[in-house]
Amino acid sequence: MTVQETADFLRTLDEVLILTHVRPDGDTVGCAAALCRALRGMGKAAYLLPNPEITGTYEPYAASLWAPEGYVPQSVVSVDIAAPNLLPDNALPYKGGICLAIDHHGSQEFFAARTCLDADAAACGEIVYDVIRALGASVTPEIAMALYVAVSTDTGCFVYTNTTARTHRIAAELMDCGIDVGAVNKALFRTKSAVRLAMEARMVADMELYDNGRVVVMSIPLSLCRELHATEADIEELSSLAALVQGTDCGITLRELKPGRVKISLRTGPRVDACAVCRVLGGGGHKAAAGATVEGTMDEVKAGILAAYREVVG
Questions:
Q1: Over pLDDT 90: what percentage of the chain?
Q2: What is the greatest pairwise CA distance in the chain?
Q3: Which of 13, 22, 47, 250 could serve as 75's disulfide partner, Cβ 3.0–4.6 Å?
Q4: Burial profile 151-187: b = 16 or more Cβ within 10 angstroms, e = fewer
């Protein structure tokens, strides 16, 4: 669906429930909050499905929008979700009834009845911004801030290679709505807890290099999280650390979610298609940033992702 077709369809909906993905980041939360507020501004009932994994970083943008217990929606919409396996457990009952998915992942599996997809968008927030404008809804400061969080976090505060001129134009238009981005940028991009810094130090100390130093692997085992008493807020976005190592263009982060289950995150340069590598293991994402969640020990998963890298890169 085009942006205009998506807006036209949204006008026909009411009693809407909006879904975010597992381990929610700024893009999925910001998109959901902005779309929810826009629909409410049009006189419609709209809520976010409570996400049990949301951290204190993004909770403020969604806190007043959670659906009350027992809420029965007429329509279910997902944002920034590429595949059904990215739905939180409490969203699984709605898996077969999602009427619209708004997304920007090239690995989109088209699980919804209708899909608005722009794989060239740097963030799903860019698409939602266009949809809200096509709806004719007012972009209030609250909506603008939620979308700024969406766009800025998925572009690493506008430094990742997915950032485009359009990204900057949208950010400027959002800032023109009267939001103060200084405090948000400080909180999201220039503030780290002591635990977070300790985790980064350990990850760097234990990192491994492969393929003549072009590939770096960093690990977050459960034992490290327990030792440092790390919260989810301490861990989120650690996947970007591996890509900062000079001389590498393929950063692999392995996070042990529970014994026998590991989350893989890839951040790559133009030489390596991160999405293609992760697809080998059943995952997906974007060309420069992708992931997969697989069964196995940390050593087994490391061997698997390195084999997938060799298969794709040669």
A1: 99
A2: 59
A3: 13
A4: bbbbbbbbebbbbeeebeebbeebeebebebeebeee
Sheet with 284-285, edge to edge strand ranges: 208-210, 215-220, 250-258, 261-268, 289-295, 284-285
In angstroms, rounded to a whole number, what is the distance separating the alpha carbons of residues 204 and 217?
9
For the chain, how are helix, strand and coil distributed in percent, rounded to 5? Answer: 45, 20, 35
Task: List the CATH number of the domain containing 263.
Answer: 3.10.310.30
- List pLDDT tens digits, range 280-309: 999 999 999 999 999 999 999 999 999 999
Containing 141, the helix (H) or strand (E) segment is helix 141-154
Could you give the C-alpha distances from 252 to 17, 91, 200, in angstroms and in order?
A: 35, 29, 14
Query: pTM to 2 decimals?
Result: 0.91
Domain that holds residue 121: 3-189
> What distance in Å separates the CA atoms of residue 75 and residue 57, rounded to the nearest whole number?
28
